[in-house]
Amino acid sequence: MSLYTGRLRPAKGEIRLTEEEIRTGGSGMEPENAAPEEEKTVSAPETDADDTAETVTADDEAERTEPDSPEQTAGPGAPESGTPAGNAREGLFGEAPAHPLAGVREERPEVPRPASGIPAVGCYGLTKRFGETEALSELSVELPAGKIIGLLGPNGSGKTTFIKILAGLLTPTAGEARICGEVPGVSTKAMVSYLPERMYFDPGMRVRECVALFRDFYKDFDESRAVGMLSALSVPMDRKLKTLSKGTKEKVQLVLVMSRRAKLYLLDEPIGGVDPAARDYILSTIVAAHDPGATVLISTHLIRDVEPVLDGFLFLGGGRCVMSGEAEAVRRESGKTLDELFREVFRCF
Description:
alpha/beta
């Protein structure tokens, strides 16, 4: 039976982005203080097509001439819309069954879906090195729109590096990443709502000032929704962040990030410091804020807690895709929960 095992390899002809290996002086797989890097993009070289003359005989004049193919009308060397040249792929996951918390979804304006056939996230031969350390190794994967996907793996597996590349904070050493068909950069900033693993607000700011900052900075931010969720979590609006507990600070950041109407939500350890009693509400908040056309990528070690809301999963180990698929399908075929399967797969890591 299939358990979606194995690493997906890049297809032939895919575009590669290269740069000098970056030496940071650190020994970890994912340096904690890695500075944002300058983004570089390389366009696929265009090749001139040979002009050919077609002779039409008298017998052929009555036959209908077929129109030019999309490749011909688009111009020489033009890749298919939203897909790198030579990378026509299908998404990793099909239609996933409704998860147990689906009923808490709110009626909100639907986020525009990516064009047909374009994945929300596409990675092709994605590689990232920090000096001699390879954090990601030829990772090729596509994530569909409209799903909540768990990015799961042991420490040092490349999860944070992967998320930072999608957020546009790091550039690949080789290969490329695409968000709705576009290379991460200025054009994708409005599509992505990113929750880092660390607090990024000034500790002296009050909670209501954080809300005002998001309101002024992001035009897709829903202030009334954010205030309502903060009130439901009993977060004091006039308190300074430095006076709040670690878990309460995480609540503030998560609420603000999920109150945007983005196409892709990148959540790096969103509930790591939150008490168990509040986790259910926070997870239901993620589901409720999950617009039908948006993708949520959650990186966490608390697999048992997030499993009920996951449509799909991606196991990373050593910077590679170890296993991926639909959560319900794998549970049905293996007879194990994702938490049990994770412990079995990564027992030797």
